[in-house]
Design a protein that fits this description.
By secondary structure, this protein is α/β, with parallel strands linked by helices. The protein folds into three domains: 3-117 and 261-331, FAD/NAD(P)-binding domain (3-Layer(bba) Sandwich); 120-258, FAD/NAD(P)-binding domain; 369-432, Arc Repressor Mutant, subunit A (Orthogonal Bundle). The chain is 37% helix and 22% strand. Strands 1, 2, 3, 4, 5, 6 and 19 form a seven-stranded mixed sheet that branches. Strands 8-15-9-10-11 form a five-stranded parallel sheet. Strands 12-13-14 form a three-stranded antiparallel sheet, with no helix packed on it. Helix 5 packs across helix 7 (200-215) and helix 6 runs antiparallel to helix 11 (354-360). The termini are close together. It binds flavin-adenine dinucleotide. Flavin-adenine dinucleotide binds next to helix 1, strand 4, strand 7, helix 4 and helix 5.
């Protein structure tokens, strides 16, 4: 028989841990599913591993996760690690796989807290061996203490500088940092600086990271407006354009980063309304004040809604859980509002800096929408920007038709690596706003699932 819970939380990052702790504290029966081997999400990844305990080099914000994860472990809830969720249906049934076995579970409420993923960086050569994202560099570091010496870091955003700083603190040599933040963004973001004043410490921290890079003698090149990876099959150099001139830096590892975007696959497949955020240049989930989505019984919280950072995600998770508890009749409205007050204050404070960061680090159009015809957009099916433009010229009019014409978005990642680029390429070709262009129609399973697992599932449900 399918197991039934009051609340199922998908994701054990800051938002999911906060949501599940809040719900469990009120006596709700809670199940948390997460595909990582331990709780923490992206920022606090592998924080329980001995090699990460008190690891000063990862920064103070990493250690903020210790009490959160500890509190999560102490809570009365069911937590399943290494559980990859491939389905959330509108009738609140969740399908997940663990150790090659698929299972179905149900709940009266679902909280989706699937966080962020890195924005694709579709530049020429980004699929060559030796090119990774900055997030991947962090995953290797946090999970396995693996680093790459003399890598070139290229991109924009706080995570770029944080990762380089972590490398410096660990004494790992870095070849160069190429800052792809468009020069015009500095002026454009200036008026939003006032709104970010309460978070001056974060701005100062970012400035200190930059200063440390300079002090370590690492070339930090700002004003870079184009970049490409050269090499036969692997990276041999990172070529960049600055003040109209192309230069090359030889290296065998390049880490790219253009910020993070919400991981919307589960929410979209469940039918939650989404909209295009111009400032964040990505799809975001439409939610109300309690993080209820447009699908009855489904809330979405944290970076999986729109990008706000770890502390904002934690506050959102708490608010979403209180909203769900009220909807289940476990707490009345005044208790819900009372408990949510502290989360709301924290959320307001955290969101103060967001507008400034969004304007400052909005990636340049040419980096999000490749100009060069032979740049790969869909990595799984190896479809290039030129092939997509040709298909659009034939009269193909949307992401779903493009799928059938060219297989773009039909590979194992189900559009996670190309979905945003495809929407923007179609917007550019058609002149339509991205919100009208739309996104791939996502269906379960949103992650590859062996047929055998599905067949076994059907068999076990008959027993
Ligand atoms: C690669 C990467 C590295 C980052 N590093 C930092 C950092 O060092 N410092 C920083 O301040 N911010 C970092 N960020 C941003 C940071 O992730 C967020 O601000 C914060 O973690 C958001 O919390 P969250 O709970 O919303 O999501 P996350 O922390 O992302 O947690 C989401 C969880 O959902 C799980 N999940 C997703 N999909 C599924 C599925 N289908 N089935 C099961 N589980 C699923 C994931 O495994 C993850 O554990 C990083 C982001 C990324 C993408």
């Amino acid at each position: 028989m399918t197991k039934h819970y009051d609340i199922i939380v998908i994701g054990a990052g800051p938002a999911g841990m906060s949501a599940s702790r809040t719900a469990a504290a009120q006596g709700a029966r809670v199940l948390v599913l997460d595909e990582q081997s331990s709780p923490g999400g992206q920022i606090y990844r592998a924080i329980e591993k001995p090699h990460n305990q008190r690891r000063r080099e990862l920064g103070s914000s990493y250690q903020d996760g210790v009490p959160l994860v500890h509190g999560f472990r102490q809570s009365e809830l069911d937590y399943v690690n290494a559980a990859s969720v491939w389905q959330l249906s509108a009738d609140l049934e969740v399908g997940y796989s663990r150790d090659g076995i698929a299972q179905l579970v149900r709940a009266d409420r679902i909280i989706v807290a699937t966080g962020a993923q890195e924005r694709p960086v579709p530049i020429p050569g980004w699929t060559k061996r030796g090119v990774m994202t900055v997030g991947a560099a962090q995953i290797l570091l946090k999970e396995s203490s693996v680093v790459a010496s003399d890598a070139v870091f290229a991109g924009s955003g706080p995570l770029l500088y944080l990762a380089v700083h972590q490398y410096l603190e660990l004494g790992v040599p870095v070849k160069a940092v190429l800052d792809l933040t468009p020069a015009k963004n500095y002026l454009g973001a200036l008026p939003a600086l006032f709104g970010a004043r309460a978070d001056f410490a974060k701005i100062l921290e970012g400035w200190q990271w930059k200063r440390a890079i300079g002090a370590a003698g690492i070339p930090l090149l700002t004003g870079v407006d184009a970049v490409r990876i050269s090499g036969e099959k692997s990276v041999e150099s990172v070529d960049y354009r600055r003040r109209g001139e192309w230069q090359a830096i030889t290296c065998d590892t390049a880490f790219l980063h253009l910020g993070v975007v919400p991981n919307i696959n589960i929410s979209m497949a469940a039918g939650c309304d989404c909209h295009w955020s111009h400032n964040q240049a990505c799809w975001t989930v439409t939610v109300d004040d309690w993080f209820n989505s447009s699908v009855a019984g489904v809330s979405v919280a944290g970076d999986g809604v729109s990008i706000g950072g770890a502390a904002a995600a934690e506050a959102q998770g708490g608010i979403a859980a209180l909203g769900a508890l009220h909807a289940l009749g476990r707490i009345d409205a005044s208790e819900r509002d009372r408990l949510a007050a502290a989360y709301r204050i924290r959320l307001r404070k955290e969101m103060g800096i967001r507008h400034f960061l969004d304007l400052l680090f909005r990636p340049a159009d040419r980096l999000r929408v490749p100009r060069e015809a032979d740049t790969v957009v869909c990595r799984c099916e190896e479809v290039t920007a030129g092939q997509i433009r040709e298909t659009l010229d034939l009269g193909c009019c949307g992401p779903n038709q493009l799928k059938s014409f060219s297989r773009t978005g039909m590979g194992p990642c189900q559009g996670r690596f190309c979905g945003h680029t495809v929407s923007e390429l179609i917007g550019e070709a058609s002149g339509l706003p991205i919100s009208e262009v739309g996104y791939f129609r996502l269906r379960s399973p949103i992650k590859p699932l062996p047929l055998k697992e599905l067949a076994d599932l059907a068999h076990s449900s008959k027993e």
